[in-house]
């Protein structure tokens, strides 16, 4: 990256930024990948977000907290007509993603490596067709619940940037967080839960890729829920 990054405030919805020390090859891929894929919030957002991408796209999606990027890379490769913005502040996940993108570049993908609220506040109103929040940190201790990403303030942000009819998708294996999300979306009023029976929230989304985290949760008898809310 060229120049110095401007420090931005964070609302601390995520935990640590670093895990194990990354290998030199990962560090090289990370630096090169961020130079190529990172969106620059110091520049005004284009009125037409499709201009963020060097290829023609017709829809725009945002994934918050993509981890190692398994799902995001699969979704972007399977749907080249959609532009994807992925957000992940954890350096080790970013490095894994960038190593994979070095092997298989994706022109319909952009990345941000800090607080997702910064991107949400930067985006133009009614600019996204979808927002995905898959397996976010549940912050299980009551004193930390204020750090859960699903909150009235962030649902306000979602409502602002989603187009009418746009979808907010939420997946988790933590029952309390699933119920928390249902209650918060119902109380907010801008989101309608799309479920007619239990299979609608037990069945994974189309083209879903099971990550190692989800496989581990299922082995430990934690049942995932897949919620879909439509922006009214």
UniProtKB/TrEMBL annotation:
Reaction it catalyzes: guanosine(46) in tRNA + S-adenosyl-L-methionine = N(7)-methylguanosine(46) in tRNA + S-adenosyl-L-homocysteine
SUPFAM superfamilies, A to Z: S-adenosyl-L-methionine-dependent methyltransferases (SSF53335)
Pathway: tRNA modification; N(7)-methylguanine-tRNA biosynthesis
Keyword flag Transferase: yes
Pfam family, one: Methyltransf_4
Binding-site residues for substrate, renumbered to this chain: 141, 173, 211-214
Binding residue positions for S-adenosyl-L-methionine: 63, 88, 115, 137
GO CC annotations, alphabetized: tRNA methyltransferase complex
Family annotation (InterPro entries): SAM-dependent_MTases_sf, tRNA_(Gua-N-7)_MeTrfase_Trmb, tRNA_methyltr_TrmB_bact
UniProt keyword annotations, A-Z: Methyltransferase, S-adenosyl-L-methionine, Transferase, tRNA processing
GO molecular function: tRNA (guanine(46)-N7)-methyltransferase activity
Enzyme Commission number(s) of this protein: 2.1.1.33
Enzyme class: transferase
Family, per entry: Belongs to the class I-like SAM-binding methyltransferase superfamily. TrmB family.
Function noted in UniProt: Catalyzes the formation of N(7)-methylguanine at position 46 (m7G46) in tRNA.
HAMAP family: tRNA_methyltr_TrmB
Record's protein name: tRNA (guanine-N(7)-)-methyltransferase
Gene (name only): trmB
């Amino acid at each position: 990256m060229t120049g110095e990054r401007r420090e931005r405030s964070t609302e601390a919805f995520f935990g640590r930024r670093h895990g194990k020390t990354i290998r030199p090859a990962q560090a090289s891929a990370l630096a090169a990948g961020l130079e190529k894929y990172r969106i620059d919030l110091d520049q005004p957002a284009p009125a037409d977000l499709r201009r963020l991408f060097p290829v023609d796209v017709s829809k725009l999606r945002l994934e918050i907290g993509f981890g190692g990027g398994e799902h995001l890379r699969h979704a972007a490769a399977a749907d080249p007509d959609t532009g994807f913005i992925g957000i992940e502040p954890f350096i080790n996940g970013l490095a894994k993603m960038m190593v994979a993108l070095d092997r298989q570049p994706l022109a319909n993908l952009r990345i941000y490596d800090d607080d997702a609220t910064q991107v949400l506040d930067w985006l133009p109103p009614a600019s996204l067709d979808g927002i995905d929040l898959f397996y976010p940190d549940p912050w299980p201790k009551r004193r930390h619940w204020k750090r859960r990403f699903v909150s009235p303030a962030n649902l306000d942000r979602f409502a602002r940037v989603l187009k009418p009819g746009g979808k907010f998708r939420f997946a988790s294996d933590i029952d309390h967080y699933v119920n928390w999300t249902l209650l918060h979306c119902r109380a907010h009023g801008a989101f309608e839960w799309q479920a007619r029976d239990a299979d609608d929230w037990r069945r994974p989304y189309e083209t879903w890729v099971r990550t190692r985290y989800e496989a581990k949760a299922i082995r430990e008898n934690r049942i995932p829920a897949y919620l879909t809310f439509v922006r009214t």
